[in-house]
Amino acid sequence: MHFLYPIGLLALAGLIVPLIIHLWNVKQGKTVKIGSIALLGESSRASSKSFKINDWLLLLLRCLLLVILAFLVAQPYFKKNISANIKNGWILADKATFQQVFKTHKKTIDSLLKKGYEIHDFNVGFTQLTLKDTVGNQAKQTNSLNYTALLSAANHFVPVGASVYLFADRRLNHFGNELSTVNYKLRYIPLNQTDTLSSWIAEYAGKKYEAKSNPSNTSYQALNSGDEVPINIAIHEAAGIADGKYLIAALKAIGNFTKRKIIINPASGKIDIGFWLSDDPVSSVFKSSIKPNGALFQYEKGKVIASSSFINLDGRHIELSKRIASINGAKKIWTDGFGNAILTNEKSNALHIFHFYSRFNPQWNELVWDGLFVKALMPIVIRADNTADFGFENHPSDQRRLSAKQNDLFQPDKTKSTIKTTQNKALGTLFWIAALLIFVTERILSFRKKPNDVKN
What we know:
Elements: E1 2-3, H1 16-23, H2 56-74, E2 76-82, E3 90-93, H3 98-104, H4 106-114, E4 118-121, E5 128-129, H5 147-153, E6 163-168, E7 185-190, E8 198-204, E9 207-213, E10 218-222, E11 231-237, H6 244-258, E12 262-264, E13 271-277, H7 284-288, E14 290-299, E15 304-313, E16 316-324, E17 331-336, E18 341-347, E19 352-356, H8 372-381, H9 414-417, E20 421-426, H10 428-447
Parallel strand pairs: 3-4, 3-6, 6-7, 11-12, 11-13, 13-14, 14-19
Antiparallel strand pairs: 1-2, 2-20, 4-5, 8-9, 9-10, 15-16, 15-17, 17-18, 18-19
Pfam family, one: BatA
InterPro entries: Aerotolerance_reg_N, Double_TM_dom
Keywords: Membrane, Transmembrane, Transmembrane helix
């Protein structure tokens, strides 16, 4: 039994009232005059008080009546768990491969069907299938969603807590970056697949790689390590500024690491990237020397702000002493500890412009002394559209699979899978009836006339 307003039980303190009434039930004594001693004078009157409870039943009835009234104030109810009406579960399989799945796992599927399981297409909409769909060749169709998204979408179709048997392969390219949480009991039965090898050509930052994939890993090997076009970089440094030496050291480190040829301040020709290390506005000549779709990295001029903060780079904090007040609304790439822009990026007239609101100088920050400096410049120097995807692309020839040890990938959401349907039933009516019966009984006992036995 539960109470909607448990604070109402404080009314039980009223039980002390009938107890006090019964204990202080005073009986007055009677004065009897006897003629034979009348001459001796009238004795002083005396009264007697009895603190003895004479009627226990009446006291209990009155106390019980108060208990029931307190319960009514607290509004009692009974919570009844109603098990979900899950008569069966689901069998999930891609309709395009269901014929082969049924041949391979016929015994398992037949036993599940006898238990009342339903067959559903492992695709958007989860269309119900029948054994007729195992006859003949099915037209091949491609999932518009990956397995992770489909299993998450199934939460809206599969009854909570139901059992689901999924017949599907375990290749990684079918899954998203995160595993979903399901509200049903999922049993993943992998399809039998022989170990296969595949290869394809991938491009990244002007270099070609041969990707070789097997069920356990995918590796990349550069093909034209000596055929890449050099990266031409120009550095303009204003008089009195010695920041260029730090930048040149970082660029050389990038070249050694990536095995790319980087030419700093070429004698002639267009440049790929220009670094303008000056407070003066970027000259039109310098800007026009950059190739279309090239990059310009420029110091921003403005109010210098002393800042006891840090530059947030790749989850690490680089000490920041001074910065320039940012007024540009471009996309933030680097920020300080307060979210102020340190480096922003925008595209203007076929040129990628990076606005830097600090300096490559130890008096401004500790960036040039940190090994993260080289890594931070890498996406600016070696730019590629598929930077984030390289090595993680969802290539159809990727043979990598989930490990056999990863059988419990999609854990049920305990906050939902353990939920049982409940029904609250108010008990107020029963308590009112009980209160009425007790009140009537108490009144009858209170007005009941007790016979007086008089003996002469």
